[in-house]
Amino acid sequence: MKFRVERDVLADGVAWSARALPNRPSIPTLSGLLIAADEQDLTLSGFDLENAAQVHVDATVDEPGRVLVSGRLLADIARSLPNQPVVFATEGSRIELQCGRSSFVLPTLPVDEYPTLPAMPDPVGSVSGDLFAAAVSQVAIAAGRDDTLPMLLGVRVEINDSRVTLAATDRYRLAVSEFTWRPDQPGFEGAALVPAKILADTAKLLAHANEVSVAYAPGSAGEGLMGFSGDGRRTTTRLLDGEFPKYRQLLPEESSTVTTVDKATLVEAVKRVSLVAERNTPVRLTFSGDEVALQAGSGDEAQATEALEGSTTGDVIEIAFNPHYLLDGLGAIESNDVKFSFTGSTRPAVLTPASGDSVDSYKYLLMPVRLSS
Q1: Residue 3 burial (C-beta neighbours within 10 Å; 0-12, 13-18, 19+)
Q2: What is the pLDDT of residues 312-350, one digit of tens each?
């Protein structure tokens, strides 16, 4: 095998496919990156038996072939090469990499022992990369990180013809985002639980794609598959098992108090006041009339207070939130103003955009922190 590829193209392709390399491979060949060259282009693939990442890149191929090399090592080398074309050539059980006056000789792994990557399922719809990335980032912040609750480690993807709903929760907050897309199978309905980290990383890297195609293959426990592709890149991932909470019933239909406040002003105030909040210490907020008052710290501890303008209709609400969770929700809202909807000081609050196209498409439900009397 012999081919020539531009340094930046190689580095980007290796970075994409190396995302799927396992930290502790169960078999030695899984530590390798599969490089396949044919007459037209170059394909780089990584696989950990659960997630696969593959990319097609432009290259000048003199001799087609397949080779398996250490993925981590190749990624490190690709990032450090000078900005010149890179030439790969196999010599027996080794591969030589030449870039300008830099050269590396790498041992290869047995390519015949490399497992077959899963095939991409049938596409069910497509959406612009920036819209997809924005919606995923809004909900992935609320996904759980507790391995003992695997059903909370994912983002629930619900497809209903041209409407897609994403939801994630860690029991302390819930994020729901909806968007429309172009269905490939009109009338298709389905739901899947996708690993949040894989989904978030993939969506972020495909944000500049004109179109992201989503493929889905339901299956028995542990056999379902979802795939994402765009700009010559693709990722497939096994779906998570377990039943996702019935989250819709957590969202209240009515509110006794509604407050609208400038988002940027509130974000800065929360950051300042929370400087005196020790770990796991909440920030207390009072919503009343035309003011929102913030307070953190108590007793002999450091204390901070701040007040800012707001517009509240309904009962006065005194409530406390984890400041990090509150900032996550505020950061995910795309409008200049944010709306808080309350049913009581001990009940969850719902944060939504107060204006713009995303008013009805995003909800962030945040559980309050109970304060000792």
Answers
A1: buried
A2: 999 999 999 999 999 999 999 999 999 999 999 999 999
